[in-house]
Design the sequence.
């Protein structure tokens, strides 16, 4: 899910076994300019991100015949414009919609070298 037409509402973006990428608006309509054709069925799902640093989303998908496609979109890559930028996951890979990293993170001390929370029990 990402706002790929910059109207402030996110589209559901899917890649298909028919070999294309579709963006569906909140009204259930295919966006103008879609589907985006590919050479073979999708192997990847579709991802949205600013891969060239121009401040706008690109959509990216890969096909069974070994190609990776990237398309420019007019959607501005800014906070709140892509709740689900990757297939099946959110930005934290938790698979929970709306999970934007607000949860407490458990630190095990591995990075800091603090072993005080480590268990000494060996099964
Ligand atoms: Ca939109
Ligand atoms: Ca971009
Ligand atoms: Ca671009």
Sequence:
């Amino acid at each position: 899910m990402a706002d790929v037409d910059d109207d402030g509402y996110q589209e559901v973006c899917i890649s298909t076994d028919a070999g294309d990428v579709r963006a569906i608006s909140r009204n259930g309509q295919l966006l103008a300019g879609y589907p985006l054709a590919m050479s073979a069925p999708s192997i990847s799902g579709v991802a949205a991100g600013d891969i060239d640093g121009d401040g706008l989303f690109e959509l990216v998908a890969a096909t069974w015949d070994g190609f990776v496609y990237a398309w420019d979109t007019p959607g501005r890559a800014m906070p709140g414009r892509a709740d689900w930028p990757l297939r099946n996951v959110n930005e934290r890979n938790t698979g929970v919609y709306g999970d934007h990293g607000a949860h407490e993170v458990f630190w095990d001390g591995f990075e800091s070298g603090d072993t005080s929370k480590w268990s000494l029990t060996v099964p």
